[in-house]
Amino acid sequence: MGLTDGEAAADLQARRFDAAGGGRRWQGVQTFGNINSEIGAAAGPVLRRAAYYCRNNPWISNGINAIVANAVGPGIKPQSLHPDEAVRDVLHARWDRWLEVADADGVTDGYGLQALGVRTMVEAGECFAHLLPTQAGLRVRLYDPEMVPRDETRELGDGRRILQGIELDPDGMRAAFWVHRTRPEVPAFSTELVRVSADAMAHCFLPLAPGQLRGISWLAPVLLRLHEIDLTEDAHLVRQKVAALLCAFLIDPTGTANVFQGTNVQGVLSTGMEPGTLKALPPGTDVKFSDPAELGDAIQFLKLQLGSVAAGLGIGVPTYLLDNDVSAANYSSLRAALLEFRARLEQLQHSVIVHMLCRPIWRMWVLTEVLAGRIAGDLDALLAVEWITPRQPWVDPENDSKAIALQLGLGLTSRRREVAALGWNVEQLNREIARDPINVEIMAAARARSLGSVSGDGAPTPSSAQASRPLPPNTTVRHAA
Fold this sequence. Notes:
This protein has 15 helices and 14 strands. It is an alpha+beta fold. Among the domains are: 35-221 and 313-320 and 334-390, no CATH class; 393-466, no CATH class. It has a five-stranded antiparallel β-sheet with strand order 4-5-6-7-8, with no helix packed on it. The chain has a three-stranded antiparallel β-sheet with strand order 3-2-9. The longest helix is centred in the last third of the chain and has 41 residues, at 331-371. The termini are far apart.
């Protein structure tokens, strides 16, 4: 039987996506608006609450330390791609010297700035790096989000405008950042804002949507859950503490019994009993000992909640990076968790940290050195660089080393890349090896073994002994090109 016109119209208007429907199950659920408006309104309270938990919650502190250590480690290091080896040596040598004085505040070195910048991005949602060219070279000063006020929004005319402290040109491109002249916490705080060109400021944050201007703390999805976990844990802790403090209850119907010697303060009797003590109680007097309730499923419940916190913390981290508990893990499960985590780390390193923080610093550093006359050459060639992220060791270093050797033999990686991942400059390492005859012999033997066991296409190659053997009739040998 067909539908009437009214029924057909009602059927067409019905929403087939449950997520777009209404009803009792969706009551009280808030919708999400424009990304910039939502971040602008929520960033302040979220920032302060996130800072509290970062400083006071051991799980979150441990998780953030793990993210920073795995993402930055000893540093994401540049490897110049200049075609001239001599120029590369000069660039790397000057960069290494510059690292010691890179921080404008003199607190840490260049790679320490990377770690602090990533930590600030995780905790506060974003980090600003002010690039300051000086006569002595480039200096970098890190700013927290409060240095660029989110409430600074106004029209400048000619299509230019400021949104949440970021100046946009008529095409919507970032033109400048408006920064407080002094930090908000200093006694002589000034509300004066200073315009800093976009070329002189690196802005590092994890974008969540196209057109996003400012970042939001990585703890935003888990803050409410963290608060509830803290309350639950405190309640269980107080419960166990109270139960442990109450040893026993003396039931005395007449109120005249005095069977235990001790100190009575406000109705609380503190006494002691020796091993093997027997006490006679008057008729009607009874003693009931405190029996603290077991936690039951509370521990498993808290573990489940902690797992959801780990999953929602930024890029998502394995739970054991929060609680350091690997008692239920084995080699396979641990490796599977590491593989997923490292895939996300690699995306974070190259799409966010390198692109938003490392590259602007390298570009400004090269320009400063060229303008000061300390480095000369074609600018495009000098700016060409590859960033090598720290190596992530597996749970089995011996097999990891064998895998690297196999990849080198198969031509799937280069020695330069692998040496850089270990934090070394390959040219410098080659010179050190050349000065040590023992290292030369070791390297020659290792190279001979790799070339003698695996060919360029991955096929085993015959050793000298195998090559000297007579071949069967009608057998041909094809050597790799």
